[in-house]
Amino acid sequence: MTVDSYERLDVERDGPVAAITLDGAGAFNSLDGRMTRELREAAVELAADDAVRCITITGAGDAFCAGADLSKLAGDASDETTIRRIAGTLHDAVSQFHYAPKPVVTGINGPAAGGGFGLAIMGDLALVSDGARLEFAYPRIGLTGDGGATFFLPRIVGHRRAMEIVLDDEPIGPAEAVDLGLATEVVPAGDLDDRLAERAAALAAGPTAAYARTKRLLVESFDRDLEGQMAAETDAMAAAVRTEDFSRGHAAFFGDEDPEFTGQ
């Protein structure tokens, strides 16, 4: 196991899995300029590293992420530059994770609010602790959503329900998060780290080259009509048959052993 050096993040690599832990200087792992810069740096590096076949993101302690550190803001128009800088850097990181050619799994171990809400729900899979909660939170301080929240939310729950979540701005408990599709499964708090590692290891052992192409197909499907999507499916399938993973999977299908995928 190797550990990458960051000040606001812990990044551990265990074989093909890279585990990011948000470890902010402020309360509830709140976001500041350094954390967003480090998150962008980690996202770019891990997305491009072929040795990393799955990425997980969770928070240190009892919180996932509470969004921007409001103590750094003045509460007036002078905050515009700070907001643009922090949000812009955070958005670069979110984009890297969203388009990463490998699964990204979030482990929502505690409160996820504001920018942390977007980070929590952007995962390809999202595990939520039975002690966690999700909160849009922006209306309470007269702000709009960021961190990709207004992109992911309607795509997951639909436009009408997204509007209800935003306008009511009520905390969403773990069971409701699963019912809405914002999370994949509820896990007892004490078991979350182990379950997150288990899911990540299983994904990393899978046909990650195929996962990458399928992930992109799903992401880009919103911008295509049916014919365009099916043409993209054909291209992706044709490319997949040239991979070692397909050869291994094909041989295993007609054999007696499970395939050992390499992501190549």
Tell me what you see in this structure.
By secondary structure, the protein is an alpha/beta fold. A hairpin with a 2-residue loop joins strand 2 and strand 3. Helices cover 45% and strands 14% of the residues. The protein folds into 2 domains: 203 residues, Alpha-Beta Complex (2-enoyl-CoA Hydratase, Chain A, domain 1), CATH 3.90.226.10; 46 residues, Lyase 2-enoyl-coa Hydratase, Chain  A, domain 2. The protein is globular. It has a 7-stranded mixed sheet, sandwiched between helices.
Features:
two-stranded parallel sheet, 10 helices, Lyase 2-enoyl-coa Hydratase, Chain  A, domain 2, 264 residues, 45% helix, 2 domains, 2-enoyl-CoA Hydratase, Chain A, domain 1, alpha/beta
Brief characterization of the structure:
The chain is of the alpha/beta class.
How many strand segments? 9
Shape category: globular
Distance, first to last CA: 22 Å
Radius of gyration: 19 Å
Supply the number of structural domains: 2
Strand/helix succession: EEEHEHEEHEEHHHEHHHH
In CATH terms, what is the architecture of the largest domain?
Alpha-Beta Complex
Note poorly predicted spans. Answer: none
Main sheet overview: 7 strands, mixed
If strands are numbered along the chain, what order do they take across the biggest sheet? 1-2-3-4-5-7-9
Helical region count?
10
Mean of residue pLDDT? 95
Give the class from helix and strand content and strand pairing: alpha/beta
Give the helix level as a range of percent: 40-55%
What is the CATH class name of the largest domain? Alpha Beta
CATH topology value of the largest domain: 2-enoyl-CoA Hydratase, Chain A, domain 1
